[in-house]
Write a structure and sequence with these properties.
- Helix 2 runs parallel beside helix 9.
- 37% of the residues lie in helices and 20% in strands.
- The protein is of the alpha/beta class.
- The chain has a 7-stranded mixed sheet with strand order 3-2-1-4-5-7-6, with helices on both faces.
């Protein structure tokens, strides 16, 4: 990840409308799962443990973050975060009842191999919850700065995950953002994408607009939960390890 963008991520997660809405939607999805009290949880690609406070409502959380530049040495969860890569002997005999990979696997060239390694870390019947950016039609400088390899279509993500897990749900999120983001991507192609344009997408708007955008995305998610429209800017997948 671009260093400047990584800093924006660390400071914006707690306040920016997009990350706030995404966390609310993910927490709602987790509450629908059959998780035991005090579940063992792994947050893969956890950054500086930004999702830990939410995930701790469901159990005991460990993290994996191989990019140590994103980690604060004095962070309250630092001792729970490993920087060893998947497949390391450090994870031998570990199994988790819930694994999250929130906007992570698009950063990894071998996404299939990564999903296979996550399967090994999942307990029998354990859950994997994934979010990824949707649709290559939305590819922009934002993806370049983030060092993305790809954006996903729903069928593509289903194929990737079904090779290792039982797919329970794969759905698009944030339909309201699709057209603006598509137009922005088209404009960048015409004018030449700029790094500053990508970073500006993380800028925090005025508080009333920030609140309205967060509320709008959360309300949209609730209203469209069972309609499952065939487009959006993010994909959410819920899958389970076969017993």
């Amino acid at each position: 990840m671009d260093t400047a963008y990584g800093q924006a991520y660390a400071t914006g997660y707690a306040t920016h409308w997009w990350w706030r809405a995404r966390e609310i939607v993910i927490e709602s999805a987790l509450r629908e799962l059959e998780l035991p009290r005090g579940a063992s949880i792994l947050d893969f690609g956890c950054g500086d443990a930004v999702s830990f406070p939410m995930l701790e409502r469901f159990g005991r959380v460990d993290g994996i973050e191989v990019d140590e530049t994103l980690l604060s040495p004095a962070g309250p969860y630092r001792d729970r975060i490993s920087s060893a890569a998947l497949g390391s002997p450090a994870y031998r005999d570990r199994q988790y009842q819930l694994i999250t990979a929130l906007d992570v696997i698009e950063h990894i060239e071998d996404d299939s191999g990564t999903v296979g390694q996550l399967e090994e870390l999942a307990a029998p019947g354990g859950w994997l919850v994934v979010t990824v950016p949707a649709s290559m039609r939305l590819w922009s400088s934002h993806d370049v700065v983030n060092h993305h390899y790809r954006r996903y279509e729903r069928a593509q993500l289903q194929r990737l995950l079904s090779a290792h897990f039982e797919v329970v749900d794969v759905r698009y999120l944030f339909q309201l953002l699709f057209v603006p983001k598509y137009l922005l991507a088209r404009l960048e192609r015409l004018m030449g994408g700029e790094r500053e344009a990508a970073i500006s997408q993380t800028s925090l708007p005025a508080p009333p607009l920030n609140w309205a955008m967060r509320r709008g995305l959360v309300l949209e998610s609730k209203m469209l939960r069972h309609l499952n429209p065939p487009f959006g800017t993010t994909l959410l997948a819920v899958v389970r390890k076969r017993r």
